[in-house]
Structure formats: C-alpha cells, structure tokens
Amino acid sequence: MSGPLTGLRVVEFCDELGQLAGKLLADMGADVIKVEPPSGSSARTIGPFVKDIPGPDRSLNFWYYNTNKRSATFDLENSDEDRAVVRRLCLAADIVIEDRSPGALAAHGLDYPSLAAEAPGIIYCAITPFGQDGPWAQYQTSDLVSLALGGPMAMNGYDPEDAPGAPPIHGNGDQAYNTACHAALHGILAALLVRTKSGGDGQYIDCSMHEALSCTTEVGMPYWLYKRENVIRQTGRHAAAQRTERWMYRAADGRDVLIFGVGRDNRTWSDIKTWMQSHGFGKQFDEERFDDPMARQPARGTPEAKEILAELGAFIASQPAEEIYRGGQQRGQAWGIVLAPDEMLNDPHWWDRGFFAEVTGEGVDEPVLMPGAPYIFSRTPWELRRPAPKLGEHTDEVRAELAAP
C-alpha cells in the first residue's frame, strides 16, 4: 500500500531546525529528497552515535529525524552545474522546505520568487528562528534559546519545596524545533488543500519558530494580556497565577503518580471516596461540604480541594503506583505513572499497537528500536520504506531521474 501523500515530491534544505517537517511528509509517503552539501548536514554531527563512534552515517538522532528520505549531495557554493541541477529538482517538486537564514537560498536562485516564476504551483515553506523580516530576522538561536525567548521555558519548572530557587527549566527533546516543524506541516498541508481546490496555485509559507512557540505558552500569555499577571512555575502541572494543589505524588514503591482531577462528577467521586475509605482514608468525605463538584476541583482555592488532595497524597503513599494507576483508571480518572524510558519500552500497550519500528544502519549488529507512527491510517498506512539515508546515497539516482526524458 501507499501513504496518503504518495506521488508528492519534496525537496528539503534542512538541518536540525526543519528536518522533522520533511520526515513527517516522508513518513506519509512523499518522496523527500534531502539536499546536503558534500560535507553533509550539520544534523549528522548530533549524537548519540552508534557505539559512541561519531560519523556522518552513525548519528542515531539523524536516523530518527530522516526516515524515508533520500540524500543527494550538491555543492551549491562552488558549482554552477550543481546549482542548475538543484534548481531543476526544485522546479519539478511540489514542495520545497528550507531552514536557512532569510535570503540565503536566493543567492543560488532557489528562493520562492525565482522558482514560482517558472513553477507557480510550488509550495515553499521557510522555517526560520524569527521569520523572514523584523529586527530579529537574522539573529542566531538554538532549541534552548528559542524556548527561552518564545516563552515556554518560563512556564516550566518546580515548586519551591521540590527545588528551592530553581530557575526556568529546559524541556529536552528538540521541543522548540519540533514545535516549529509541526506548525510548518500544518501550513504545508493547508497549502496543498488550497492548491487542489484552486486548480494549481502554490504559495509561500513563512514559518517562525519564535511565533510557533509563543502559541504554546498555555495560560501564560492570556494572564499577562488580560490581567497583567505572570504565572508561577509548578512541578508536573500547569503554570498558574497562584500556587495550586499538587498533581504528582510518590507511591509506596517509590514511583511517582500524576493525577489530573478528582471526581469531577458525583458518580466518579462516589467511586473514589469509597475506594479510599476502604483503605482507611477520607472518612470525612461523606460530609455535605464535599458534595459540590466545583468545591472538589484543584486550582479554585477551596479548602475542600486542598483537603481532598492532601488525603489523596497520603492514600497514594500507602499503595503501589500500579494499584493507584489502575484503580484510578477503573474509576474514570486521568491518572498515570511517570514512566522511565525502560518502563515505556517494556509496556505492552506500545507493542500491542505496533508502535515501535526497527531500523538498521552503519555500525549496528542488529536492528535498533525507534518511535514509529503517531497515527494509524486505515487505508494508507504508515510504512518504514527506508531507513535514514547515508550521506549522498541517492545522488546518482536523483541525477539520473532528472536526466530521464
């Protein structure tokens, strides 16, 4: 079978900032050609590496972000011939994605106005730190700096009792880059839909990582815009204007459990309090003052909510984490265990749904695991057609396709 985007040709000029956008298109079936300099994308230098030995084809990080792509190397800086070939490649493509500094590809005749003049149906997405114009357009950044400047880092941290004086915390995993790429993908798919409906017209998409991140600050932005209040960082729960009740508690076996809400309706509340009371906790919860669902909800400042969560914390401390997780879920509660990576790999739920994919590459003796598809299509399923490409692996193949009549 073929993926939902089979038949689309994408040319990608991306390193670590924009490579996820190309991966998401490639994983849905598009033919994504990653254009790299002869030395390779800088993303190939990001570890960890197979057996801790660096090399352009040994980056496990690169393997994940570049599945189902082809790699073609061209010397855009020094070769007129290569520039001409890449231009023909772009003119034959449906989509071009790039994460270069504003104007960088224009010097090679690979900017949107130059390409669209000959190929008006092209969809061109530029993913940059701060957009194509404005006073910061040429500023340099990183995933870490972008999370700081964009606002999410100010939302992320700990309660004072957990980490006194802790500064804002960096969420790892290329969150800034990935947020920008998801925004870019939304724009690309919307532009494809418009092109289909309009009869062939493409368009230019200016995707600013800074702006994408500012949309993910949750309540931080509204609180300041409407009330001129800054929010407070909190452990394992939403930032808020005032300190709210905890959501994360340590179970009897030393594992952490995250709970979200307690008895939002009277039926589930009855189930929860009966469960707790059977273990000797929450005897007072039969009192009338706990009957109002609004009084039971965290972050509303009620003494009942504070009392319920304090008692719940004591109850969780008396039980194994698995018992709390399963018991809460059985009673309709969004509760879960904070899983470590090894626990996730051993969880049968992932395997039952066929989530993990096995990939091979330079230096591995047997396939290694990586996350697979975040979705399941009923008619056009996700498929690992090829692992991340070796540097320049498909250069001759791409040249031959362009030369073919």
Textual characterization of the structure:
The protein is of the alpha/beta class. It folds into 2 domains: 9-215 and 351-403, 3-Layer(aba) Sandwich (Rossmann fold); 256-337, no CATH class. 34% of the residues lie in helices and 13% in strands. A 6-stranded parallel β-sheet has the order 3-2-1-4-5-6, sandwiched between helices. Helix 2 links the parallel strand 2 (31-36) and strand 3 (69-73). Helix 1 crosses helix 6. It is elongated.
What's the topology here?
Blueprint: E1 9-13, H1 19-27, E2 31-36, H2 60-65, E3 69-73, H3 80-91, E4 95-98, H4 112-116, E5 123-128, H5 143-150, H6 175-198, E6 204-208, H7 209-214, H8 220-227, E7 248-250, E8 256-260, H9 266-277, H10 293-296, H11 303-317, H12 321-330, E9 334-337, H13 341-345, H14 348-352, E10 356-359, E11 368-371, H15 395-403
Parallel strand pairs: 1-2, 1-4, 2-3, 4-5, 5-6
Antiparallel strand pairs: 7-8, 8-9, 10-11
Helix pairs in contact: 1-6
Which labels suit this protein?
single chain, 405 residues, six-stranded parallel sheet, three-stranded antiparallel sheet, 11 strands, 34% helix, 13% strand
Mean pLDDT: 95
Helicity level, as a percent range? 25-40%
Q: Uncertain runs with pLDDT below 50, 5 residues or more?
A: none
The major sheet is characterized as: 6 strands, parallel
- Classification by helices and strands: alpha/beta
The CATH C-level class name of the largest domain = Alpha Beta
Q: What integer value in Å does the Rg equal?
A: 26 Å
CATH architecture of the largest domain: 3-Layer(aba) Sandwich
What distance separates the N and C termini?
A: 27 Å
